[in-house]
Sequence to fold (721 residues):
Amino acid sequence: MAKGDPGVTTRGRRAAPRSKQATRADGPELVQLLTPTGERIESATGPDGTEYRVDFTDEEYRGLYRDLVLVRKLDAEATALQRQGELGLWASLLGQEAAQVGSGRALRTQDMAFPTYREHGVLYCRGIDPIMPLGLFRGVDQGGWDPNEFKFNMYTIVIGAQTLHATGYAMGVHMDGKTGTEDGEAVIAYFGDGATSQGDVNEAFVWASVFNAPLVFFCQNNQYAISEPLERQTRVPLYQRARGFGFPGVRVDGNDVLASYAVTRHALDNARLGQGPSLIEAYTYRMGAHTTSDDPTRYRIASEVEAWQAKDPIARMKAFLTRQQIADESFFAEVDEQARAESVHLRERVLAMPDPAPVTLFDHVYPHGSPELDAQRAQFTAYLESFEGSAH
Amino acid sequence: MATETLTLGKALNNGLRKALENDQKVVIMGEDVGKLGGVFRITDGLQKDFGDQRVIDTPLAESGIIGTAVGLAIRGFRPVCEIQFDGFVYPAYDQIVSQVAKMHYRSQGKVRIPMVIRIPYGGGIGAVEHHSESPEAYFAHTAGLKVVTCANPQDAYVMIQQAVASDDPVVFLEPKRRYWEKGQVDLDAPLSAAYPLHASRVVRAGTDATVLAYGPMVRTCLDAATAAAEDGRELEVIDLRSLSPLDLGSAYESVRRTGRCVVVHEAPGNLGLGAEVAARITEECFYSLESPVLRVTGYDTPYPAARVEEEYLPDLDRVLDAVDRTFGW
Fold:
């Protein structure tokens, strides 16, 4: 799906949207182009004066809505699969769909993404089969995909480690001479609010800054690192940390897919043009548990969750599309049906995933093998064969 | 044949220069590796000749060095990372163990991390704390890494090039107290015909006992063998060279002849390489052994203050004492 560029033209949309500075209307200062009630804001100004706007066709607006619904439904299916014992674990993105779809759709084909373990929505927007990460959560593999084929690195479980990988990759982009033009390459590193306390993330900030790496740090601040609230990680708004490292930072309404898109596209394009790194703090909320092993009722109250429910990313997009008559009930029904069908298809394929043969655990430790492992593999194989024909 | 007399440090420098010449994707990165040429001058002159995009002075953070090198490797580069001293590798330990070592495995062979992590290691130079450690067992214990160490200038020159050319992540341990020792180096020897990287080598033939060592202790053990010969005892000394994978073929063959074996390393004995070597030799050579395999190692203490390091480190006398004990069993 080709998306319109931000900041290009201003077509008079139906309801004469207004412009505004990043305001405190919603609590924290953030860039917002679509209010929780679905009111469209023409443009918003970031802390450094950048004016953010989007100019989508109706088809593109509908496409974003479709993405949001699809990734939520597939995510819910994965949660259900875990509850039924078909996945060992699932890290749900519920509530963070807009941050992921907005930033994911802002990536250009040549851009590279470094996810955490929760970026199922970004993965979907890269055009990748949503089955790809489920082997990891089912326990039949540990990723197993080629980052360069999909322009999407393997999931990284160790918190923040991937931000350094993204930084090194971005340094490589620069060294390959792939920056400085409009068709240059940019890199995006995803991480969460908890990760901002990690040494690796702070080192990545330093490296990206001094090497002027073409990199966007995309922090989904979902307010909790498992049970620990944001206040345990920081005393300043996270986006403000960028200033200390020498690059721009902006906070965006992470439940607003339009603003998430505009801010990310702007940052990526700056990076590919050789203007260096930036930090985006997507202010959002993890509506579900950290993972299926977590119990959020132990550390947060229902009224807080309800307050965020009112800022739901899909509901506001639906309200906007309806009010502007960009989509009607038949469209919404068709999207729901597509989501249902894709989730059924996903389920069927998860259930059909075979367990790996035990001897494969010796595979791929080294590119060209190892005499010690070859010996262990032979020993293990002989051991297994010793049971053949026995009752055990 | 262009044979020159070089120090071990200069041989490494020449080897790195060759690696940079042979492959445009090779980049050297680390603290002070550029203008300064590294605190031990191992990268001396390389930034001047290859530019600051090939020889990169990094910010002062070891996890950042290794973590960004992972990203460069995914992008198709061959990073050669310098960790300034053994005791400073630990901030990078997570990236090495959880990322570098596992990337090929997790990706089912789709991502290679052809990275070299150079670490000057070991004691004997009168340094302050954190500058004299022997961390090899941590890395040899980690699947997915290969670990090698050189003991003489010729090996230094060849092995560093082999490590850079390898598709594996290689922890390359440099015996810092031997940096200034000289030897003949054949600078034109083709890599394709070189002695294999992951093979041990008999460096002195003998018939009475087998002494296994690597890195800085090879010289110590050769000196011990010279002294033993004066007493009429012929020690066979084997330089292990590769610590992961271990190549003990020549050691098995030797111990079956001598019936006695001593393993020597600077690192503490508890769960050190010597323990693994002793276990394997016992398993393979049980009926040939005249005595248990003995270990001569650093003690199970933190590396001590410099004024007592000579007592901590295995030396000629402790090696000979252990050999004597194998005869007295």
About this structure: Chain B touches chain A at residues 27, 53, 58-59, 61, 63-64, 66-77, 79, 91, 94-95, 98-99, 102-112, 143-144, 146, 167-168, 245-247 (CB under 8 Å). Residues 8-22 of chain B form the longest helix (15 residues).
